[in-house]
Design brief:
The protein is mainly alpha-helical and 400 residues long. It has two domains: 179 residues, Growth Hormone, Chain: A, CATH 1.20.1250.20; 181 residues, MFS general substrate transporter like domains (Growth Hormone, Chain: A, Up-down Bundle). 80% of the residues lie in helices and 2% in strands. A two-stranded antiparallel sheet has the order 1-2. The radius of gyration is 20 Å and the shape is globular.
Length: 400
Amino acid sequence: MTSTATSPDPATGTPTGPPQASWAGVVSLGLGIFAIVMSEFLPASLLPRIAEDLRVSEGAAGQAVTTTAIAGALAALLISVVLPRADRRTVMMGLTALAAVSNLLVALAPNLAVLLAARLLLGVALGGFWAMATATASQLVPADHLGRALTVVNSGVALATVAAVPLGSWLGEVWGWREVFVLGAGVAVVALVVQAATLPHVAASASTGLRALGATLRSPVVLVGLFAVLVIFAGHFSGFTYIRPATESLSDLGTGALAGLLLVFGIANFAGTAVSGPLADRAPQVGTFLFPGLLGAGMVLMYATGSSETWLFVAAAVWGFGFGGVPTTVLSWGARAEPDRLEQVGGVIVTACNLAIALGAIVGGALVDGTAADAPLLVGGVAAIVGALTLTSLRTKVGA
């Protein structure tokens, strides 16, 4: 595994020469992820206004999220195939710029078709950037600090997850939904400027193209690991997507208390993210079970004790802490499973995560409609624990 960034040749700009660590570059990746994931979640808080302005149903406007997820899954899988030799600095900056363009097009969209096309561009930025993040970060820091680097990158995900919906909702009332997307474009431009100033030239992986992707997908360890990742993320999103009806069915939690519950989840999520990196570096096998295991345990605890408001908050904290550490944990696991094909394994993991979001929402919805509003908590929690056990049982190429 290449551990640090390479310096460009002064004549050609081609990455070469002695490695140099760049934590500032890692921070710029985290800022890029924040800008892109924030943009991904903005429609959730603005759907009524978008639908009214474009004269479509809220369900139709909601496809802005679906198109982004589909494009993200495909981009994550194919980005290293389409751009096998490009300087990864250029690729990451290009994807950040694409997110800015997408947000501007959404802000100017005269109809739903243009808006959906713009959101497809965001999906490419999202899937491509996140898929490349592990491999790029691995060349910016020493190999034994990759977990910490991924913590910095994934902090952008955690911050965007917590901030995007309430911030978008509030600013949508103050400014209007189009102006919120202009702000999203501005955040992406800020990330782009920081990347231009701090991100060094990064050589493409030695293993590129369809052959490397095929070799990754033929690995039994990777395939079983992808199944585990799919189960973990689907379990989480089956419950989290329907957390409001679930908590309302368990207790008399009001709107204000629900907001407090989500705040507790968000704070715990940050804590889990912060702890996951050092643990991934020092005791990866522990983290591989701990975080998805706690995620599942928190969901099951909420199901079992949710009639008590106090225990609801305790369960939300356990659940949030567990999920906060999962992205870093699974990407670090992928780096250990395929240290010579980081771009490919990162891509397939991100693709699995995107598919799991859709799968979790579908399964959770079926359980809410066909069984009970709190059923996704139990089913999703058990699924996450099964995924944790499966992932922990796998032997990787780089010892834990």
